[in-house]
Amino acid sequence: MASRGILVVLAVTIFHFMLQLITILNRCHRFPGFVYQQARFSSDHKSIEIAVRPRKGSKAICSRCHQPAPGYDQLAERRFEFIPFWGFLVFLLYSMRRVDCRRCQAVVVEEVPWGDGKRTLTKAYMLFLARWARRLSWKETAEAFRTSWDKVFDAVEHVVTWGLEHRVLGQIDAIGVDEIQYARGHKYLTLVYQIDLGVTRLLWIGKERTIESFQGFFTAMGKDVISKIVFVCSDMWEPYLKLIREHCSEALHILDRFHIVANMNKALDNVRAEETSRMKREGRAPVLRKSRWLLLRRSENLGTDQHFRLRDLLRYNLKTVRAYLLKEAFQQLWEYNSPVWAGKFLDEWCRQTMRSRIEPMKKIARSLRNHRELILNYFRAQKLLSSGVVEGLNNKAKVTMRKSYGFRTYRVLELALYHSLGKLPEPDSTHDFF
Ligand SMILES: [Zn+2]
Fold first, then answer.
1. Cα(96) to centroid of ligand 1, in Å?
2. Are 286 and 276 in contact (CB under 8 A)?
3. Which residue, of 75, 100, 275, 314, is most buried by count of CB atoms within 10 Å of its CB?
């Protein structure tokens, strides 16, 4: 008798709890035209299922033309995953209606305000997951909410697609064009950032770094936006230079410091690698071993021990050492304010380097000579552009890629980058499920 009494109490408690749940949902996730009918535990007690039905007399909305249309029939019940609640998965159950839409002259499935097409997650849950996927890696997000990586992908895709459709480009004064390696360094992406003083964000991603792919940026932004751009920062990659000349002929084109330094470091690293293996072949003492970071880092960023090691290394008469000294001397360029004096310094540095007989460095000098005016634009514009912006964004993009390890496809990378750097608007939501 007593145990039966307990069961009755329990049943009543659960009944009240489920009623409360519907009250809460009506408070935070309510849609005109639909009602929450009842909530219950699934048979395995791991999830809560909430039946939804159309409000009596309300018309279904055609998912093609977004207008009300007369009903046709009803499909089998679908499950829409909602934000989990106290360790229970939560599903909305709803039988989609089909409408016989005169405007579209077709039988079309209705659109429901909590869902997005065929996606199995509710919009609220997608926004919730996508926000977490910006802080955690996608894998961690999936684990934290006991869902799958694919569902996190769906969530981010939904939010990014919405964001790109609804973002406002407005006036763009300055852009930075950058490239980034992916797929274990075998492929390149082109990234275009807005780098205005007040607004920095990722504007566009291109699948390669070819003329054809970069052309896509100018098409996507439209003539109106492009024609008002005042500054363009890029590196010396020829397809970029060519299209920027063509489309932004009025803008001041700047080869920025970050890319020049990066190229110089690459050249120095080639010299070091080549010389290291040559010394090994000739059976000489491996004085260059583990010198890579010593040489690539700015000397003022070295620790005391490293300083001593560097000083030792610099006593040797090696190509690497001479290349290093040239690289360090070049840093002085950035301290000039006047484009004229910067130009004189640049010419002198190139002259010395051309006599160095170190081919990778000579290659840099030739390229700097060829792009002399674009480099000096850095000094003409430096009071107006905050330098280092592109470098900062480039670092963020690399962190995003690292957080998305396990992603190999371009699509995933594209979504992850827009999601973390695009500053995209988010879909409207009936309630802030933080
Ligand atoms: Zn229609």
1. 15
2. yes
3. 275
pLDDT at 144: 92
Is the CB of residue 239 less than 8 Å from the CB of residue 211? yes
Q: What is the DSSP string of 231-276?
A: EEEE-S-HHHHHHHHHH-TTSEEEE-HHHHHHHHHHHHHHHHHHHH
Whether residue 358 sits in one domain with residue 268? yes
144-171 pLDDT per residue, tens: 998 999 999 999 999 999 999 999 999 9
Same domain, 261 and 370: yes
Structural domain contains residue 21: no
Q: Would you state the pLDDT for residue 407?
A: 59
**β partners of residue 51:** 38, 93
Q: How many domains does the chain have?
A: 3
pTM for the model stands at 0.83
All residues with CB under 5 Å from ion ligand 1: 62, 64-65, 101, 103-104
Closest residue by Cα to residue 211 from 185, 191, 240:
240
The stretches in the chain having pLDDT less than 50 are: none
**167 C-alpha to center of ligand 1: Å?**
26
Residues 6+ apart with CB under 8 A from 300: none
Q: Give me the residue label for tokens 């514009």.
A: 381
Q: Ligand 1: distance of its center to the CA of 95 in Å?
A: 19
Range of the domain at 261: 257-381
Domain contains 370: yes
User: In this predicted structure, what is the pLDDT of residue 310?
Assistant: 83
